UniProtKB/TrEMBL annotation:
<dbReference type="GO" id="GO:0016829">
    <property type="term" value="F:lyase activity"/>
</dbReference>
<dbReference type="InterPro" id="IPR038153">
    <property type="entry name" value="EvaA-like_sf"/>
</dbReference>
<feature type="region of interest" description="Disordered">
    <location>
        <begin position="1"/>
        <end position="21"/>
    </location>
</feature>
<dbReference type="Pfam" id="PF03559">
    <property type="entry name" value="Hexose_dehydrat"/>
</dbReference>
<feature type="domain" description="dTDP-4-dehydro-6-deoxy-alpha-D-glucopyranose 2,3-dehydratase">
    <location>
        <begin position="41"/>
        <end position="240"/>
    </location>
</feature>
<dbReference type="InterPro" id="IPR005212">
    <property type="entry name" value="EvaA-like"/>
</dbReference>
<feature type="domain" description="dTDP-4-dehydro-6-deoxy-alpha-D-glucopyranose 2,3-dehydratase">
    <location>
        <begin position="254"/>
        <end position="457"/>
    </location>
</feature>
<protein>
    <submittedName>
        <fullName>NDP-hexose 2,3-dehydratase</fullName>
    </submittedName>
</protein>
Amino acid sequence: MTRHVTSAVLDSPRPRDNAELPGRLARSAATTEGAHLSLADFPGWLAGRDRAHRFEVRRIPFAELDAWSFDPVTGDLGHRTGRFFTVRGLRARAAGAAVGAWQQPVIDQPEVGILGILAKEFDGVLHFLMQAKMEPGNPNLLQLSPTVQATRSNYTRVHQGAPVRFLDHFQRPERVVADTLQSEHGSWFYRKANRNLIVETSGEVEPHDDFCWLTLGQIHALLRRDNLVNMDSRTVLSCLPLPDLAPGALHSDTELLSWITGERARHEVAAELIPLGEVAGWVREEARIRHAHERFFDVVAVSVRAGSREVTSWTQPLFEPRGLGVTAFLTRRIGGVRHYLAQARVEGGFLDTVELGPTVQCVPGNVAHLPPEHRPRFLDTVLRAGPERIRYAAVHAEEGGRFLNAESRYLVVEATAEEAPTAAPEGFRWVTAGQLTSLVRHAHYINVQARTLLACLYAMDTGEEPSC
Protein backbone atom coordinates (compact mmCIF):
# COMPACT_ATOMS: atom_id res chain seq x y z
CA MET A 1 0.00 0.00 0.00
CA THR A 2 2.82 2.39 0.83
CA ARG A 3 4.50 1.69 -2.51
CA HIS A 4 1.25 2.43 -4.35
CA VAL A 5 0.79 5.82 -2.62
CA THR A 6 4.41 6.78 -3.29
CA SER A 7 4.09 5.86 -6.96
CA ALA A 8 0.88 7.87 -7.28
CA VAL A 9 2.57 10.93 -5.83
CA LEU A 10 5.53 10.61 -8.17
CA ASP A 11 3.26 10.11 -11.20
CA SER A 12 1.12 13.17 -10.46
CA PRO A 13 1.79 16.09 -12.84
CA ARG A 14 3.17 19.21 -11.16
CA PRO A 15 3.37 22.83 -12.31
CA ARG A 16 6.27 23.35 -14.73
CA ASP A 17 7.25 26.63 -13.06
CA ASN A 18 7.33 27.84 -9.48
CA ALA A 19 4.63 30.51 -9.69
CA GLU A 20 5.58 31.99 -6.32
CA LEU A 21 9.30 32.40 -7.00
CA PRO A 22 9.25 35.61 -9.13
CA GLY A 23 7.21 37.39 -6.47
CA ARG A 24 9.54 36.22 -3.71
CA LEU A 25 12.56 37.41 -5.69
CA ALA A 26 10.88 40.76 -6.34
CA ARG A 27 10.19 41.12 -2.61
CA SER A 28 13.83 40.36 -1.81
CA ALA A 29 14.96 42.87 -4.45
CA ALA A 30 12.77 45.53 -2.86
CA THR A 31 14.22 44.89 0.61
CA THR A 32 17.37 46.88 1.29
CA GLU A 33 17.66 46.18 5.02
CA GLY A 34 18.31 42.53 5.75
CA ALA A 35 17.54 40.45 8.79
CA HIS A 36 21.22 39.91 9.60
CA LEU A 37 23.33 42.80 8.28
CA SER A 38 22.45 46.35 7.28
CA LEU A 39 23.98 48.12 4.31
CA ALA A 40 25.41 50.69 6.71
CA ASP A 41 27.21 47.94 8.62
CA PHE A 42 28.44 46.06 5.53
CA PRO A 43 31.68 48.07 4.97
CA GLY A 44 32.70 47.47 8.58
CA TRP A 45 31.98 43.75 8.27
CA LEU A 46 34.07 43.45 5.09
CA ALA A 47 36.93 45.47 6.57
CA GLY A 48 36.84 43.19 9.61
CA ARG A 49 37.22 40.12 7.41
CA ASP A 50 40.18 41.80 5.70
CA ARG A 51 41.85 42.43 9.07
CA ALA A 52 41.13 38.92 10.30
CA HIS A 53 43.34 37.22 7.72
CA ARG A 54 46.77 37.71 6.25
CA PHE A 55 46.70 38.32 2.50
CA GLU A 56 49.79 38.76 0.35
CA VAL A 57 50.40 38.49 -3.40
CA ARG A 58 53.79 39.11 -5.00
CA ARG A 59 55.07 38.61 -8.50
CA ILE A 60 57.76 36.00 -9.02
CA PRO A 61 59.78 34.71 -11.98
CA PHE A 62 58.56 31.49 -13.55
CA ALA A 63 61.54 29.64 -12.05
CA GLU A 64 60.11 30.20 -8.55
CA LEU A 65 56.79 28.50 -9.31
CA ASP A 66 56.23 25.52 -7.02
CA ALA A 67 54.60 22.47 -8.67
CA TRP A 68 54.23 24.36 -11.96
CA SER A 69 56.65 24.06 -14.88
CA PHE A 70 57.06 24.40 -18.64
CA ASP A 71 56.88 21.12 -20.52
CA PRO A 72 60.27 20.61 -22.20
CA VAL A 73 58.64 19.40 -25.43
CA THR A 74 55.50 21.51 -25.89
CA GLY A 75 56.38 24.52 -23.77
CA ASP A 76 52.96 24.25 -22.06
CA LEU A 77 52.84 25.62 -18.51
CA GLY A 78 51.07 23.13 -16.25
CA HIS A 79 50.74 21.73 -12.74
CA ARG A 80 52.62 18.57 -11.83
CA THR A 81 49.32 16.77 -11.02
CA GLY A 82 47.91 17.52 -14.47
CA ARG A 83 44.94 19.16 -12.72
CA PHE A 84 43.79 22.75 -12.09
CA PHE A 85 44.61 24.28 -15.50
CA THR A 86 47.28 24.44 -18.18
CA VAL A 87 48.48 27.39 -20.23
CA ARG A 88 48.59 26.19 -23.83
CA GLY A 89 48.56 27.84 -27.24
CA LEU A 90 45.49 28.61 -29.36
CA ARG A 91 45.37 28.96 -33.13
CA ALA A 92 42.13 30.51 -34.39
CA ARG A 93 40.58 31.63 -37.66
CA ALA A 94 37.32 33.57 -37.92
CA ALA A 95 36.11 34.46 -41.40
CA GLY A 96 34.84 38.03 -41.60
CA ALA A 97 36.37 39.20 -38.32
CA ALA A 98 38.52 42.36 -38.12
CA VAL A 99 41.46 40.07 -37.42
CA GLY A 100 40.82 36.92 -39.42
CA ALA A 101 43.51 34.71 -37.87
CA TRP A 102 45.59 34.86 -34.73
CA GLN A 103 47.54 32.85 -32.17
CA GLN A 104 47.74 33.37 -28.42
CA PRO A 105 48.27 31.68 -25.06
CA VAL A 106 45.03 30.33 -23.60
CA ILE A 107 43.88 28.65 -20.38
CA ASP A 108 42.83 25.04 -20.86
CA GLN A 109 40.72 23.94 -17.89
CA PRO A 110 38.33 21.20 -19.06
CA GLU A 111 36.86 20.43 -15.65
CA VAL A 112 33.51 22.01 -14.72
CA GLY A 113 33.51 23.98 -11.47
CA ILE A 114 30.67 24.90 -9.14
CA LEU A 115 29.57 28.50 -8.59
CA GLY A 116 26.74 28.32 -6.11
CA ILE A 117 24.69 30.71 -3.97
CA LEU A 118 22.62 29.39 -1.08
CA ALA A 119 19.26 31.06 -0.41
CA LYS A 120 17.12 30.97 2.73
CA GLU A 121 14.07 32.88 3.90
CA PHE A 122 14.28 35.08 6.98
CA ASP A 123 11.29 37.11 8.20
CA GLY A 124 9.45 36.24 4.98
CA VAL A 125 12.23 37.56 2.71
CA LEU A 126 14.75 35.54 0.68
CA HIS A 127 18.36 36.15 1.68
CA PHE A 128 21.48 34.93 -0.11
CA LEU A 129 24.62 33.62 1.58
CA MET A 130 27.65 35.52 0.26
CA GLN A 131 31.30 35.00 1.10
CA ALA A 132 34.15 37.45 1.65
CA LYS A 133 36.70 35.62 -0.48
CA MET A 134 40.26 36.48 -1.37
CA GLU A 135 41.41 35.89 -4.94
CA PRO A 136 45.04 36.68 -5.88
CA GLY A 137 44.11 38.58 -9.05
CA ASN A 138 41.52 40.90 -7.50
CA PRO A 139 42.79 44.52 -7.40
CA ASN A 140 41.63 44.78 -3.78
CA LEU A 141 42.04 41.02 -3.05
CA LEU A 142 38.86 40.60 -0.95
CA GLN A 143 35.51 40.67 -2.75
CA LEU A 144 32.01 39.30 -2.29
CA SER A 145 31.84 35.83 -3.83
CA PRO A 146 29.21 33.08 -4.06
CA THR A 147 28.67 30.67 -1.17
CA VAL A 148 30.71 28.12 -3.09
CA GLN A 149 33.25 29.01 -5.76
CA ALA A 150 35.37 25.97 -6.51
CA THR A 151 36.91 24.08 -9.40
CA ARG A 152 36.58 20.31 -9.43
CA SER A 153 40.25 20.09 -8.48
CA ASN A 154 39.54 22.26 -5.45
CA TYR A 155 36.42 20.56 -4.15
CA THR A 156 37.92 17.09 -4.72
CA ARG A 157 40.88 18.42 -2.68
CA VAL A 158 43.69 17.73 -5.14
CA HIS A 159 45.55 20.46 -3.23
CA GLN A 160 45.07 18.42 0.03
CA GLY A 161 43.58 21.51 1.69
CA ALA A 162 40.51 21.96 3.87
CA PRO A 163 37.06 20.91 2.57
CA VAL A 164 34.98 23.49 0.70
CA ARG A 165 32.46 24.88 3.17
CA PHE A 166 28.73 24.41 2.37
CA LEU A 167 29.51 22.25 -0.70
CA ASP A 168 26.96 19.60 0.33
CA HIS A 169 24.07 22.03 -0.27
CA PHE A 170 24.96 22.06 -3.97
CA GLN A 171 25.85 18.41 -4.41
CA ARG A 172 22.54 17.37 -2.81
CA PRO A 173 20.30 20.44 -3.28
CA GLU A 174 17.07 20.70 -1.31
CA ARG A 175 15.32 23.07 -3.73
CA VAL A 176 16.82 24.34 -7.00
CA VAL A 177 16.16 27.96 -7.94
CA ALA A 178 18.49 28.06 -10.97
CA ASP A 179 20.96 25.60 -12.46
CA THR A 180 22.77 26.05 -15.76
CA LEU A 181 26.17 25.61 -17.40
CA GLN A 182 27.66 28.94 -18.43
CA SER A 183 30.80 29.82 -20.38
CA GLU A 184 33.81 31.63 -19.03
CA HIS A 185 35.83 34.31 -20.88
CA GLY A 186 36.03 33.08 -24.47
CA SER A 187 39.06 35.26 -25.18
CA TRP A 188 41.21 33.70 -22.45
CA PHE A 189 39.74 30.24 -21.76
CA TYR A 190 39.40 27.36 -24.19
CA ARG A 191 35.84 26.03 -24.02
CA LYS A 192 35.56 26.51 -20.26
CA ALA A 193 32.22 26.23 -18.45
CA ASN A 194 31.05 26.36 -14.86
CA ARG A 195 27.85 25.14 -13.26
CA ASN A 196 25.93 28.19 -11.99
CA LEU A 197 23.64 27.14 -9.15
CA ILE A 198 21.21 28.86 -6.80
CA VAL A 199 19.59 26.56 -4.26
CA GLU A 200 17.22 27.25 -1.40
CA THR A 201 17.29 25.54 1.97
CA SER A 202 14.81 25.50 4.83
CA GLY A 203 17.23 23.92 7.28
CA GLU A 204 19.71 25.41 9.69
CA VAL A 205 22.93 26.78 8.19
CA GLU A 206 25.95 26.88 10.44
CA PRO A 207 27.18 30.49 10.70
CA HIS A 208 30.73 31.45 9.77
CA ASP A 209 32.47 34.78 10.16
CA ASP A 210 33.48 34.99 6.49
CA PHE A 211 29.89 34.59 5.26
CA CYS A 212 26.90 36.93 5.46
CA TRP A 213 23.20 36.78 4.52
CA LEU A 214 22.07 39.60 2.22
CA THR A 215 18.81 40.36 0.45
CA LEU A 216 18.76 40.78 -3.30
CA GLY A 217 18.11 44.48 -2.77
CA GLN A 218 21.26 44.78 -0.70
CA ILE A 219 23.31 42.93 -3.31
CA HIS A 220 21.95 45.22 -6.02
CA ALA A 221 23.07 48.23 -3.97
CA LEU A 222 26.55 46.73 -3.63
CA LEU A 223 26.71 46.15 -7.41
CA ARG A 224 26.73 49.93 -7.81
CA ARG A 225 30.12 50.07 -6.05
CA ASP A 226 33.47 49.46 -7.72
CA ASN A 227 35.28 46.14 -7.27
CA LEU A 228 33.05 44.73 -4.56
CA VAL A 229 30.87 41.94 -6.01
CA ASN A 230 33.12 39.49 -7.82
CA MET A 231 32.61 38.05 -11.29
CA ASP A 232 31.46 34.65 -10.10
CA SER A 233 28.74 36.23 -7.98
CA ARG A 234 27.60 38.36 -10.89
CA THR A 235 27.28 35.44 -13.30
CA VAL A 236 25.28 33.37 -10.79
CA LEU A 237 23.00 36.30 -9.94
CA SER A 238 22.28 36.81 -13.64
CA CYS A 239 20.64 33.36 -13.67
CA LEU A 240 17.89 34.37 -11.22
CA PRO A 241 14.44 34.00 -12.87
CA LEU A 242 13.36 37.55 -12.06
CA PRO A 243 9.85 38.59 -13.16
CA ASP A 244 9.44 40.05 -16.64
CA LEU A 245 7.35 43.23 -16.48
CA ALA A 246 7.74 44.24 -20.13
CA PRO A 247 4.59 44.05 -22.28
CA GLY A 248 6.54 42.84 -25.31
CA ALA A 249 9.72 43.21 -27.35
CA LEU A 250 10.85 44.47 -30.73
CA HIS A 251 11.61 40.90 -31.78
CA SER A 252 9.68 37.84 -30.59
CA ASP A 253 11.56 35.14 -28.72
CA THR A 254 11.30 32.86 -31.75
CA GLU A 255 12.70 35.58 -34.02
CA LEU A 256 15.56 36.19 -31.58
CA LEU A 257 16.45 32.49 -31.38
CA SER A 258 16.30 32.24 -35.16
CA TRP A 259 18.68 35.20 -35.48
CA ILE A 260 21.15 33.64 -33.03
CA THR A 261 21.02 30.35 -34.94
CA GLY A 262 21.63 32.24 -38.19
CA GLU A 263 24.63 34.05 -36.68
CA ARG A 264 26.10 30.75 -35.54
CA ALA A 265 25.57 29.29 -39.00
CA ARG A 266 27.11 32.18 -40.92
CA HIS A 267 30.30 32.48 -38.86
CA GLU A 268 33.06 30.06 -39.73
CA VAL A 269 35.36 29.72 -36.74
CA ALA A 270 38.19 27.22 -36.46
CA ALA A 271 40.02 27.08 -33.14
CA GLU A 272 42.49 24.47 -31.98
CA LEU A 273 44.97 24.00 -29.18
CA ILE A 274 48.64 24.04 -30.14
CA PRO A 275 51.84 23.80 -28.05
CA LEU A 276 52.52 27.02 -26.16
CA GLY A 277 56.09 26.95 -27.40
CA GLU A 278 54.86 27.22 -31.02
CA VAL A 279 52.63 30.28 -30.59
CA ALA A 280 53.70 32.93 -33.09
CA GLY A 281 54.02 36.58 -32.08
CA TRP A 282 54.54 35.96 -28.36
CA VAL A 283 57.79 36.19 -26.40
CA ARG A 284 58.67 34.20 -23.27
CA GLU A 285 60.82 36.04 -20.75
CA GLU A 286 62.03 35.28 -17.22
CA ALA A 287 58.91 36.62 -15.50
CA ARG A 288 56.28 36.93 -18.23
CA ILE A 289 55.04 35.81 -21.62
CA ARG A 290 54.12 38.88 -23.65
CA HIS A 291 52.83 39.83 -27.07
CA ALA A 292 55.57 41.03 -29.41
CA HIS A 293 53.84 44.43 -29.73
CA GLU A 294 53.15 44.76 -25.98
CA ARG A 295 49.36 44.38 -26.43
CA PHE A 296 46.50 42.27 -25.11
CA PHE A 297 47.84 40.56 -21.96
CA ASP A 298 50.86 39.01 -20.26
CA VAL A 299 51.17 35.60 -18.62
CA VAL A 300 52.85 36.11 -15.24
CA ALA A 301 53.49 34.16 -12.03
CA VAL A 302 52.61 35.01 -8.42
CA SER A 303 53.20 33.74 -4.92
CA VAL A 304 50.13 33.90 -2.67
CA ARG A 305 49.40 33.82 1.06
CA ALA A 306 45.75 33.76 2.15
CA GLY A 307 44.80 32.78 5.68
CA SER A 308 41.11 32.27 4.83
CA ARG A 309 41.55 29.84 1.91
CA GLU A 310 41.41 26.02 1.94
CA VAL A 311 45.16 26.16 1.19
CA THR A 312 46.94 29.07 2.88
CA SER A 313 49.89 29.49 0.48
CA TRP A 314 50.63 28.55 -3.12
CA THR A 315 52.10 29.78 -6.42
CA GLN A 316 50.38 29.93 -9.81
CA PRO A 317 50.33 31.58 -13.25
CA LEU A 318 47.87 34.41 -13.98
CA PHE A 319 46.84 36.31 -17.12
CA GLU A 320 47.30 40.07 -16.76
CA PRO A 321 45.44 42.22 -19.34
CA ARG A 322 46.94 45.47 -20.55
CA GLY A 323 44.61 48.33 -19.72
CA LEU A 324 41.11 48.95 -18.43
CA GLY A 325 38.35 47.37 -20.50
CA VAL A 326 35.13 49.01 -21.64
CA THR A 327 32.04 46.81 -21.51
CA ALA A 328 28.73 48.48 -22.33
CA PHE A 329 25.14 48.08 -23.42
CA LEU A 330 23.59 50.84 -25.45
CA THR A 331 19.96 51.22 -24.43
CA ARG A 332 16.83 52.83 -25.86
CA ARG A 333 13.13 52.77 -25.29
CA ILE A 334 11.53 51.23 -28.36
CA GLY A 335 7.72 51.27 -28.44
CA GLY A 336 7.78 52.29 -24.78
CA VAL A 337 9.82 49.21 -23.78
CA ARG A 338 13.43 49.41 -22.55
CA HIS A 339 15.75 47.52 -24.93
CA TYR A 340 19.49 46.77 -24.93
CA LEU A 341 21.67 46.35 -28.01
CA ALA A 342 23.32 42.92 -27.94
CA GLN A 343 26.13 41.77 -30.20
CA ALA A 344 26.73 38.32 -31.68
CA ARG A 345 30.25 37.80 -30.28
CA VAL A 346 32.77 35.47 -31.87
CA GLU A 347 35.56 34.44 -29.47
CA GLY A 348 38.18 31.76 -30.02
CA GLY A 349 37.41 29.88 -26.82
CA PHE A 350 33.63 29.58 -27.23
CA LEU A 351 32.17 26.09 -27.49
CA ASP A 352 29.41 27.15 -29.90
CA THR A 353 30.98 29.83 -32.15
CA VAL A 354 28.73 32.74 -31.10
CA GLU A 355 27.30 34.00 -27.82
CA LEU A 356 25.40 37.22 -27.18
CA GLY A 357 27.65 39.89 -25.70
CA PRO A 358 27.37 43.57 -24.84
CA THR A 359 27.23 46.26 -27.53
CA VAL A 360 30.87 47.07 -26.84
CA GLN A 361 33.44 44.78 -25.24
CA CYS A 362 37.12 45.64 -25.64
CA VAL A 363 40.23 47.25 -24.19
CA PRO A 364 40.47 50.51 -26.17
CA GLY A 365 44.27 50.45 -26.12
CA ASN A 366 44.30 47.10 -27.91
CA VAL A 367 42.38 48.50 -30.90
CA ALA A 368 43.85 52.01 -31.08
CA HIS A 369 46.19 50.95 -33.91
CA LEU A 370 43.36 49.64 -36.10
CA PRO A 371 41.85 51.71 -38.93
CA PRO A 372 38.43 53.21 -38.09
CA GLU A 373 36.51 50.62 -40.11
CA HIS A 374 38.03 47.83 -37.99
CA ARG A 375 37.51 49.43 -34.58
CA PRO A 376 34.63 47.99 -32.55
CA ARG A 377 31.33 49.42 -33.70
CA PHE A 378 29.70 51.85 -31.25
CA LEU A 379 32.92 52.20 -29.20
CA ASP A 380 33.13 55.93 -29.91
CA THR A 381 29.44 56.36 -29.00
CA VAL A 382 30.12 54.84 -25.60
CA LEU A 383 33.38 56.71 -24.98
CA ARG A 384 31.95 60.16 -25.76
CA ALA A 385 28.71 59.72 -23.77
CA GLY A 386 28.24 62.45 -21.18
CA PRO A 387 27.31 61.66 -17.58
CA GLU A 388 23.67 62.58 -18.20
CA ARG A 389 23.40 59.60 -20.58
CA ILE A 390 25.04 57.01 -18.36
CA ARG A 391 22.38 54.99 -16.57
CA TYR A 392 24.85 52.61 -14.88
CA ALA A 393 28.61 52.75 -14.35
CA ALA A 394 30.95 50.74 -12.14
CA VAL A 395 34.39 49.17 -12.41
CA HIS A 396 34.28 45.42 -11.88
CA ALA A 397 37.12 42.92 -11.80
CA GLU A 398 37.07 39.75 -13.85
CA GLU A 399 37.76 36.30 -12.38
CA GLY A 400 40.48 36.85 -9.77
CA GLY A 401 41.57 33.23 -9.62
CA ARG A 402 42.96 33.31 -13.17
CA PHE A 403 43.36 37.01 -14.08
CA LEU A 404 45.53 39.65 -12.42
CA ASN A 405 44.17 43.21 -12.18
CA ALA A 406 41.68 42.46 -14.96
CA GLU A 407 39.16 45.28 -14.71
CA SER A 408 36.51 46.69 -16.99
CA ARG A 409 34.30 49.73 -16.74
CA TYR A 410 30.79 48.35 -17.07
CA LEU A 411 28.30 50.82 -18.51
CA VAL A 412 24.70 51.16 -19.63
CA VAL A 413 24.51 54.16 -21.96
CA GLU A 414 21.39 55.87 -23.30
CA ALA A 415 21.60 56.15 -27.10
CA THR A 416 19.67 58.16 -29.63
CA ALA A 417 17.86 56.67 -32.62
CA GLU A 418 20.47 58.26 -34.87
CA GLU A 419 23.36 56.66 -32.99
CA ALA A 420 21.72 53.23 -32.67
CA PRO A 421 18.77 52.81 -35.05
CA THR A 422 15.95 50.37 -34.43
CA ALA A 423 17.06 48.46 -37.54
CA ALA A 424 20.30 47.25 -35.95
CA PRO A 425 23.36 46.63 -38.13
CA GLU A 426 24.48 43.14 -39.01
CA GLY A 427 25.64 41.22 -35.96
CA PHE A 428 23.51 43.22 -33.49
CA ARG A 429 19.94 42.88 -32.15
CA TRP A 430 17.78 44.82 -29.72
CA VAL A 431 16.67 42.63 -26.79
CA THR A 432 14.85 43.23 -23.52
CA ALA A 433 16.14 42.30 -20.08
CA GLY A 434 13.41 39.67 -19.93
CA GLN A 435 14.68 38.05 -23.12
CA LEU A 436 18.22 37.97 -21.76
CA THR A 437 16.92 36.45 -18.51
CA SER A 438 15.10 33.78 -20.51
CA LEU A 439 18.16 32.94 -22.61
CA VAL A 440 20.51 32.74 -19.63
CA ARG A 441 18.51 29.79 -18.31
CA HIS A 442 20.21 27.82 -21.09
CA ALA A 443 23.90 27.14 -21.70
CA HIS A 444 26.13 29.10 -24.07
CA TYR A 445 23.73 31.85 -25.13
CA ILE A 446 24.93 34.86 -23.08
CA ASN A 447 28.63 35.54 -22.54
CA VAL A 448 30.09 36.31 -19.13
CA GLN A 449 30.41 40.05 -19.73
CA ALA A 450 26.77 40.34 -20.80
CA ARG A 451 25.76 38.28 -17.75
CA THR A 452 27.53 40.81 -15.52
CA LEU A 453 25.59 43.63 -17.17
CA LEU A 454 22.36 41.64 -16.86
CA ALA A 455 22.92 41.34 -13.11
CA CYS A 456 23.68 45.07 -13.01
CA LEU A 457 20.52 46.11 -14.91
CA TYR A 458 18.57 45.52 -11.70
CA ALA A 459 21.10 47.58 -9.77
CA MET A 460 20.67 50.72 -11.87
CA ASP A 461 19.96 53.56 -9.45
CA THR A 462 17.68 55.50 -11.80
CA GLY A 463 14.23 55.01 -10.33
CA GLU A 464 13.26 53.22 -13.56
CA GLU A 465 12.50 49.53 -13.82
CA PRO A 466 14.64 47.63 -16.37
CA SER A 467 11.43 46.35 -17.99
CA CYS A 468 11.89 43.01 -16.33
